[in-house]
Specification:
It is built from 9 helices and 15 strands. The chain is of the alpha/beta class. The protein has 2 domains: about 170 residues, NIF3 (NGG1p interacting factor 3)-like (Udp-n-acetylmuramoylalanyl-d-glutamate--2,6- Diaminopimelate Ligase, Chain: A, domain 1), CATH 3.40.1390.30; about 120 residues, Udp-n-acetylmuramoylalanyl-d-glutamate--2,6- Diaminopimelate Ligase, Chain: A, domain 1 (3-Layer(aba) Sandwich), CATH 3.40.1390.30. The strands form 4 sheets. It has a 6-stranded mixed sheet with strand order 7-10-12-13-14-11. The protein has a 5-stranded mixed sheet with strand order 3-6-5-4-15. A hairpin with a 7-residue loop joins strand 8 and strand 9. It is globular, with a radius of gyration of 23 Å. Bound molecules: zinc ion (ZN).
Length: about 300
C-alpha cells in the first residue's frame, strides 16, 4: 500500500536485499558464485484482495449486523502487501504505530470510519487519523459484528474459554444457523456465577470484573455477547439463559437483567474483545505465511482500575 515501485513482488530480484518476509530461502548461485549477486527464492506477497478474501473466510461479512460498517473501509484492493497490524480500536496512537512500523493494512475490529464523514480534515480526530493513514498508504479493513458472530470469532472463543457445553448462537444466522449473533451454552456442572467470573477474568488477564445478581448460585445456561451486551438482555433471558457474560453494561440494563432472573458478568469492553484481535493476527499469518502480522503493541485498555487508599 505504500506508494513505491517495490510493491511489485518481482521487483526485489533487481534490488538488494528483499525484505525477510518475502524470502523463503537464500540460495547462492553456484554457477557464478564468485561474482554474481546472490539469488533469492521469492515468496509472492499477496495482494490486498487476497488478504481480504482470507479475512472474509474467517469473518464472513454477511454475518455483520445491518447497522454496521464492515469490510475494506480505506484503500485499494490491488497492491501487494506484506505487513498487517490488527487492533481493537484505531486510535491516533495505534495509527502512529502502524505508520512507524510500515504496516500496509490495519485490521481494526471497531470500524473507522464508522459513521459517514463529510470532511476528511485534521479538524476532527477521525479525519486526522484517516489523513495520516491515507498519506502513508495504509489500508483499513474491519470485521466487527461479522468477527463477533463467526465460527472462530470472538463469542465462540469466549465460550471456549468458559468451557461451555452444547454451544449455539443466541440469534442464529438465517443462511448459516450454526453461526450468528452471540453464543450460549451450559457452564460446567455446579460452576457458580462467581467461579465463572473468576475463570473469565483470569483467562483475559483482568484484575476483576463486575457482577450483578447473586454470585453464589449456579451459572447454568450462559449467554455471551462480547463488547456491549446490555441491549440484548431480553433476548438472552428469552433464550433460557441464567447468566449473561458481556464486556460492559449500563446500570439500567443490569437492573433489567436481574429483574428477569439473569445474573450478569461484565469483564470490560476492551478485555472481552482485544484478545481475539491477537488470535486474528495469528490465524491470518498461518493462512498467508508471506505476511508479517502482529497485534498492535501500543493499544491498551483506556479504562483502568485505580485503587483508592482505603482499598489498598
Ligand atoms: Zn467492541
Amino acid at each position: 500500500m505504500r506508494p513505491s515501485t517495490s510493491r511489485c513482488p518481482f521487483a526485489h530480484a533487481a534490488r538488494s536485499p528483499p525484505p525477510a518476509s518475502c524470502l523463503q530461502a537464500r540460495v547462492p548461485d553456484a554457477s557464478a558464485a564468485s561474482e554474481s549477486a546472490p539469488v533469492y527464492d521469492l515468496v509472492l506477497m499477496p495482494t490486498l484482495s487476497t488478504v481480504i478474501t482470507e479475512l472474509e473466510q474467517l469473518a464472513p461479512l454477511q454475518l455483520a449486523a445491518d447497522w454496521d460498517n464492515v469490510g475494506l473501509l480505506v484503500g485499494s484492493k490491488r497492491p501487494t502487501i506484506d505487513r498487517v497490524m490488527t487492533c481493537l480500536t484505531l486510535t491516533a496512537d495505534v495509527a502512529r504505530e502502524a505508520v512507524a512500523e510500515q504496516a500496509d493494512l490495519i485490521v481494526s475490529h471497531h470500524p473507522l470510519p464508522f459513521r459517514p464523514v463529510n470532511q476528511i480534515t485534521d479538524a476532527s480526530a477521525t479525519g486526522g487519523i484517516l489523513l495520516e493513514l491515507l498519506s502513508a498508504g495504509i489500508a483499513v479493513w474491519s470485521g466487527h459484528t461479522a468477527w463477533d458472530s463467526a465460527a472462530e470469532g470472538i463469542n465462540a472463543s469466549l465460550a471456549e474459554k468458559l468451557s461451555l457445553q452444547d454451544v449455539s448462537p443466541i440469534e442464529p444466522d438465517t443462511a448459516t444457523p450454526a453461526v450468528g449473533c452471540g453464543r450460549m451454552g451450559m457452564a460446567p456442572a455446579s460452576s457458580t456465577v462467581a467461579e465463572l467470573a473468576q475463570t473469565l477474568a483470569a483467562a483475559l488477564g483482568c484484575p476483576g470484573c463486575h457482577v450483578a445478581g447473586p454470585a453464589d448460585r449456579p451459572a447454568g445456561r450462559v449467554g455471551i455477547v462480547c463488547g456491549s451486551g446490555g441491549e440484548l438482555v431480553a433476548e438472552v433471558a428469552a433464550a433460557g439463559c441464567q447468566t449473561l457474560v458481556t464486556g460492559e453494561i449500563k446500570l439500567h440494563n443490569a437492573l433489567d437483567a436481574t429483574a428477569r432472573g439473569l445474573a450478569v458478568i461484565a469483564v470490560g469492553h476492551h478485555a472481552s474483545e482485544r484478545f481475539a484481535m491477537e488470535q486474528l493476527a495469528d490465524r491470518l499469518a498461518s493462512r498467508l505465511p508471506a505476511l508479517h502480522c502482529w497485534a498492535s503493541a501500543t493499544e491498551t485498555d483506556p479504562l483502568v482500575w485505580l485503587p483508592t487508599p482505603s482499598s489498598l
